[in-house]
Structures are given as C-alpha cells and as structure tokens.
Amino acid sequence: MTQVIYPTHTCFDDALDLATGLVREDRRRAVTLRVVHGIVHPYDKPFAHAWLEAGAQVFFCGIQDGEKRVFQISRSEYYAEILVLECTRYTLGHALRLNRQTGHYGPWTAQYRALCRQGESHAQ
Fold first, then answer.
1. On the chain, which terminus has fewer CB atoms closer than 10 Å, C or N?
2. pTM attached to this predicted model
3. Which helix (H) or strand (E) holds 12?
4. What angle separates helix 11-25 from helix 92-102, to the nearest 10 degrees?
C-alpha cells in the first residue's frame, strides 16, 4: 500500500530549518548539505519548491497521518517523482546569508518568486 505524503505548504521555511537542525546534530553535514530551490512540474503547472540534498540523498518535510515529518529518498527517485525542471543549490552558509539579507526563507530568485505569487495551492 502506498502512503500519501501531503505538502506542508511551507517548503522554503522547512528546508532551511531542517538544514540548520541537521547541522546542529552533526556539524560535518555542513560540508555536503545543500538547500535547494527549484521549479518542479508534477501536476498541471510548474511551481517553486524547496528541499535539501546531501550527496545522492534528498530530505524534505511533508504531512503524513496528520503529522509533519521528515522524509529521505534518493535524489534520482525524488527528481523523477516531482519532475524537477531546474534548481539552484545553496550551501548552508549562503542560504543563511540570503535569509538574513532578505528577511525571508526564499525563494531568492525572481523566476522562482514569480511562481509563488500565482496564488495557487502548491503541492510539495
């Protein structure tokens, strides 16, 4: 039986918060961990989305059984599932600097922001 993972609708916040939490647990993760913002197209229209990558693994937050949870999956499987059209990877340090400079969790590029402003309900 396939379990359904529902979106949190806060993926940009989730990605940066999850990254800082993972690095607090193990500072060595900061070397390979990337905050990723991208354009994905698993449904009718493309939308902006965020997740984490550490090597060939992806971490993301979702709602399952009514609770917010962290999921881990291979990058190739995740990209195939959500149909990643393009993405931008940030080191944790760079993402934190952009967060401080802009006062928000992202997205930080105009192209991605435009997809967030469409006012649609975005799935994660």
1. N
2. 0.89
3. helix 11-25
4. 130
The letter for the amino acid at 4 is V
On the 0-12 / 13-18 / 19+ scale of CB atoms within 10 A, 12 is buried
Phi-psi region of 119 (alpha: psi -120 to 50; beta: other; left: phi over 0): left
The 3-state DSSP class for residue 115 equals: helix
Whether the Cβ atoms of residue 11 and residue 61 lie closer than 8 Å to each other? yes
Residue 96 confidence (pLDDT) above 80: yes
CA 46 and chain centroid, separation: 15
Instruction: Tell me whether strands 47-54 and 84-91 are parallel, antiparallel or unpaired.
Output: unpaired
Give the DSSP letter of residue 3. Answer: P
Confidence of residue 44 (pLDDT cuts 50, 70, 90): confident
Q: Which amino acid is at 105?
A: Y
